[in-house]
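[Discussion] Sanity-checking designs against the backbone

I'm trying to build intuition for which residues belong where. Below is a structure token string of 126 positions. I'd appreciate it if someone posts a full sequence so I can compare it with mine line by line.
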């Protein structure tokens, strides 16, 4: 799972095996370490919720979890839809959330293109 943060937006990109694992276990997570200390890490996760709006966010120190409605996740995984987006208003600004399928980069080969969805634009001239 890839994490991208830009200004007030957070995007998670998932490959096919990660989506399968999410549907099977109900949660996937990754961590990034910033220093050797135990608390110098950030965990980012995607978790299925039994009900509620399509996308929500749970923040705890050293952990950000995007919550995705289980039924919506199943429809997204089984269909052609690229992503699920939402916007959260915290009163002091809005946070844009996006969970999407990870497609192959048309200009890269090898390791960077493992466990990803075929790019629908593959073979197209840039």
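Best answer:
Here's mine. Compare freely.
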């Amino acid at each position: 799972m890839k994490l991208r943060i830009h200004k007030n937006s957070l995007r998670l990109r998932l490959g096919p095996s990660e989506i399968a694992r999410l549907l099977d276990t109900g949660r996937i997570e990754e961590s990034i370490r910033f220093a050797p200390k135990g608390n110098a890490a950030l965990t980012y996760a995607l978790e299925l919720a039994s009900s509620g709006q399509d996308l929500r966010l749970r923040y705890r120190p050293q952990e950000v979890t995007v919550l995705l409605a289980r039924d919506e996740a199943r429809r997204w995984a089984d269909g052609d839809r690229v992503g699920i987006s939402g916007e959260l208003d915290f009163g002091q600004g809005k946070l844009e959330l996006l969970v999407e399928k990870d497609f192959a980069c048309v200009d890269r080969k090898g390791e960077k293109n493992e466990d990803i969805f075929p790019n629908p634009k593959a073979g197209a001239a840039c």
